[in-house]
Specification:
There is one protein chain. The longest helix has 18 residues. β4 and β5 form a beta hairpin. The chain is built from four helices and six strands, in the order ααββαβαβββ. The protein is α+β, with helices and mostly antiparallel strands and 151 residues long. Helices cover 36% and strands 27% of the residues. It has one domain: Roll (Nuclear Transport Factor 2, Chain: A). The relative contact order is 0.18.
């Protein structure tokens, strides 16, 4: 590799803000699976198919500090899906971090998420065209599951 190319590559790596955002120490070992679940979850909500996201949720989900399950959870997800479609939200970016890394970078979680952001879980920062959302995922039997969601 020429010196000029090596220098340009080094400059590119240094100039990229957040280049380590998905470094091995920052993301869960199977971050790609957590990201896949989160991406599918948000896609279902944004496409107006909240029933497709229910299997991606834990039995109980903390939505903005309110713990919901069963029919109440399904109703709230339908509500969120309707609002997202009315606003024309589009998913722009996902960042997956361990709970420990999220706390290290951003400080302690707000009180409505405090019981959800615990070691061993993944924190997903989702950026939309108009807003952002934080989802917390826990490993369930064979799959990551959404356990909390807040804006």
């Amino acid at each position: 590799m020429s010196t000029a190319r090596a220098g340009a590559l080094a400059l590119l790596l240094v100039a990229l803000p957040g280049a380590r955002s998905l470094a091995a120490d920052a993301a869960p070992r199977d971050a790609y699976l957590a990201e896949l679940v989160a991406r599918s979850f948000f896609r279902g909500l944004l496409e107006g198919q909240p029933e497709t996201v229910l299997p991606l949720c834990a039995a109980e989900v903390n939505l903005d500090g309110e713990r919901l399950r069963g029919p109440a959870l399904g109703a709230r997800l339908r509500e969120l899906s309707t609002r997202a479609r009315q606003k024309g939200l589009r998913l722009r970016k996902l960042v997956v971090l361990t709970a420990e890394e999220a706390v290290r970078r951003y400080g302690p979680p707000p009180s409505r998420l405090r019981g959800s952001v615990v070691p061993g879980r993944a924190v997903v920062l989702a950026r939309f065209n108009q807003s952002g959302v934080v989802a917390v995922l826990a490993r369930g039997p064979g799959l990551w599951r959404v356990t909390a969601l807040t804006d």
